[in-house]
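Q: What changes when XIL is included in the input?
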Amino acid sequence: MRTRTLRMLAAGATALALFSGAGAAAAAPGGAPGIDAKDTLARSAPKGLHIGGAAAGGGHHADAEYPDPFTSDEPYRSLLATEFTSLTPENQMKWDHLRPSREEFAFADADDIVNFAEENGQVVRGHTLLWHSQNPAWLEEGDFSDAELRDILHEHITTVVGRYAGRVAHWEVANEIFDESGNLRDTENIWIRELGPSIIADAFRWAHEADPEAVLFFNDYNVEGLNAKADAYYALVQDLLADGVPVGGMGLQSHLGTMYGYDPSLPDNLARFGELGLETAITELDVRMELPDGAEPTPAQVAKQDEFFEFVLTSCLEEASCGSFTLWGASDRYSWVPNTFPGQGSATPWTDDLERKSAYCVLQSTLLSAQPGGAARAQHHPAYADCRAA
Ligand code: XIL
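A: The predicted holo structure follows.
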């Protein structure tokens, strides 16, 4: 609760500005059809909490029938501009997207997102620099000496982080470095396998040299609660901080499913990383469900999804260190879920047609409840009924 009180005090000073049209979200262009630009998650959030969204493109979209979402879908772009104060390139800053060859950097798509964010008064979360997945074949299958590999990573981090210095607020430097048992992925992850675990500290140091202002994060899935994988991060972060490594944040991806439940120890887990002095963040939240043969969600599934979204958002709102809450997908149309988990879907708060779902209304009313004078948490904020009726 200490956080909410702090945020409410801070928000008090700016609440009027927020609702009278000033502030980051106000600079955004008009909303998508049917979406009131004055009534967004960005505008509903208490001061001090970024509301983020993944900017869809690359990755699985490259094989889809539709054109690249971020660059060509105008209503979707308007939604991104108005609903969020933070954007994460879904794939456009990954190695396989940025690095067609060892000699080349392909920055056009990443530049588009960073420019768009700047035009709309948003911050960017860079994603990601050291990962076992979505690496180009020339890297994974190349025959490099250890010294060459080290040079390749150093050059990559220096060039990419340096290019966006001052324009990317948070970097998810190391992604998914531990397995479920809390062991380093020292076979899958090329950097750890070939160069040893000390490369992780080097990656953070190099990123810090290239942009001393950026907050540098670890990021992973299944680390929402107190478990072996989260414990491994907790231990590693303490060692790195003791060595003066510039680790600044812990990101909990939060890819949830209504059929799995959520871990109620999420608030305790956020709090322990916060106590180490780290910023914490929800970085990739979605809540998928089983939808065989394209079925519609049942009322029970919808209710569960609402509950999951509300739980994660409330956990972040109530934790002082949690500065950013990012949704992995702003529309089911572009969600990675059906592609990666066949037979599952409906994982985002917007339909295929960018209509707000029940989960959207829950998020919005939960945010509004955290504003000064917000309704008691036990009940939905009055705006919930309006949102549902819209
Ligand atoms: C996913 C993207 O959403 C897809 O478009 C892509 O095909 C695969 O990767 N954890 C991460 C994200 O850190 O980068 C992943 O994004 C989802 C899981």
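Observations recorded in class: The beta strands are 50-55, 86-89, 123-130, 170-175, 215-220, 249-252, 255-257, 279-290, 322-327, 344-345.
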